[in-house]
Amino acid sequence: MKKILNLLAIALIVLPMMAQAQIVKPDTLTHWKKKLLFNFNINQAAFSDNWTGGGTNSLGLNARINYLLNYAHGKNSWDNQIDLLYGFVNNSGQGFRKTLDRIFIDTKYGYKIGKHWSVFTSLNFLSQFAPGYRYDKDANGVEQAVLISDFLAPGYITSAWGLEYKPVDFFSVRLAPFAPRLTVVQDPERFVPAVDPVKPYGVTPPDETRWEWLAFQLQADFNKDIAENINLKWRYLMYANYETLELKTIDHRLELMLNAKVNRFITVGLGGILVYDYDQDPGAQVSQVFNFGFAYTFQNFEEPK
Q1: Mean pLDDT over the full length of the chain
Q2: Pairing with 247, which of 94, 162, 276, 292 sits 20 to 30 Å away (CA)?
Q3: pLDDT in tens, 91-112
Q4: pLDDT tens-digit profile of 127-165?
């Protein structure tokens, strides 16, 4: 009952804030495009002690903040994005467990050399907010939390230089034949042998960093309303180190999200992330998320139809 009352209190605070869930104030005098998206989702379940159907009391929450700040004038452009995602679930008997966690920051300067082509340079950062755990059972069958990741463990900073192809506003491809990357793993000894006994996340202890100077990066972005009140967004990233170039050492990351607007302040979303990174794990990693909750958007431009 206490959890339900807490949820009702949160809803009473959040609902008034979401009363104007999408605000568009076109500003045709500025060269800057700004867009803020905030998602907030709650899920909860509670059962009485004599509930014969079985079940586990739980409380979950996930939130996302995405901010775009883009400049375009003449042949010059400067695109910036901050994408923050975090979620957790608290199951009775298991305690607090993280479900979603991502920090992505990207900035790119471009100079047009043709109708759809630009030369560009970009810098992006990818990591997570909080420690991540794998849950294994010991010899007595008791579940134990094993630390496998943390903030800046790993963290990736990539600088890319190359050409961008952007035929329409909602789709672009970056081709960067020179894309040095810095991998950071704070206190890598923590992840031996839970992650890798020799080079956790590609970093050899006691070193905390690894430079990859000669590498190629491809990034493709798509973000469009594919139907009324339905938005599809995906980003594909490929990274290949020339010095260790093999099919199995090429990194791939695909993020996909499909959002449907139920009304002006409620949305439903389905998405997932597919990651293949040989330095993390020899197999493909998959995560999936479904959410139902509140969404708030503010922008100073109208989306192209």
Answers
A1: 88
A2: 162
A3: 887 888 998 899 999 999 999 9
A4: 999 999 999 888 888 888 999 999 999 999 999 999 999
In which element (H, E) is residue 244 found?
none
In eight-state DSSP terms, residue 153 is B
Q: CATH 3.90.930: does it fit domain 2-299?
A: no
What pLDDT, on the 0 to 100 scale, is given for residue 3? Answer: 45
Q: What is the pLDDT of residues 56-72, one digit of tens each?
A: 788 888 899 999 999 99
Taking the C-alpha atoms of residue 117 and residue 131, their distance in angstroms, rounded to an integer, is: 41
Separation in Å, CA 176 to CA 129, 140, 155, 156, 160: 28, 51, 20, 16, 6
Give the start-to-end residue ranges of the domains of the chain.
2-299
Round to whole Å and give the CA distance between 207 and 185. 8
Extract the runs of DSSP E, i.e. beta strands, from 169-284.
171-178, 181-184, 209-212, 215-227, 230-241, 251-261, 266-276
Q: Supply 41's token pair.
A: 């989702």
176 neighbors 215 (Cβ within 8 angstroms): no
Token pair in block for residue 79: 């695109």
Please give the torsion angle defined by the CA atoms of residues 161, 183, 107 and 24, in that order, rounded to the nearest 10 degrees: 140
Half-sphere exposure of 186 (CA within 13 A, CB side): 11
Determine the number of helices (DSSP H) and then strands (DSSP E) in the chain. 1, 17
Backbone angles phi, psi at 215, to 5 degrees: -155, 160
